[in-house]
Amino acid sequence: MSESRRANFASFYRATLIPLRRYLARMLGNSGDAEDLAHDAYVRIYESMDVESVDQPKAYLFITARRLALNQIKRRKIAPVDARDGAKIIEFAEAGAPGVERVVMARQEWARLEAAIEELPTGCRNVLLLRKRDQLSHEEIGLQLGIAVSTVEKQHARALRLLRATLRDEGVAGGRNNSESGCCAAGR
Q1: pLDDT at residue number 179
Q2: What is the Cα–Cα distance from 96 to 119, expressed in whole angstroms?
Q3: Is residue 40 a part of any domain in this protein?
Q4: Residues 33 and 52 occupy one common structural domain
Q5: Does 115 lie in the same domain as 70?
Q6: Tens digits of per-residue pLDDT, 89-134?
Q7: pTM of the model
Q8: Same domain, yes or no: 83 and 108
Q9: If residue 159 lies in a helix (H) or strand (E), which one and from where to where?
């Protein structure tokens, strides 16, 4: 591009920059994005004006800028971008269903939990299932099993403690203290 064309482009740039940024800011709702797109639009028309002459450069600039803005708006719908503290962070919409990895992990966790519950002494397991699965109170469990409420509370607490230990020490067979199997082993 010749020196005179560069000078003309510089004066064109100064005359159209503020109106173009306002136009883009209204379209995009963000002055930072408007500045970026205005810059991109000027780059594109500068390159094309070097190749061919443009009869209405202002109209050409605004049409180019509008197309760039519409493309950005479409991209936002696909992968929304949120400006925080001047840095752009991509926020993806959450999927309605969990991913395969989460499903597999959840199934493995569920299988571990079921196995750990099966390993509990009978009395502790019965109390735990009545409390957690059937949502019975300690009093209701005591009436159903014919044991004291304090026994229900102790077996429930013990079942939870044994489950935590089993799940924490997964893979260690017989890792529980044998002295803890006493009160629940009778199946109370």
Answers
A1: 41
A2: 35
A3: yes
A4: yes
A5: no
A6: 555 555 567 778 888 888 888 888 899 999 999 999 999 999 988 8
A7: 0.41
A8: no
A9: helix 149-168
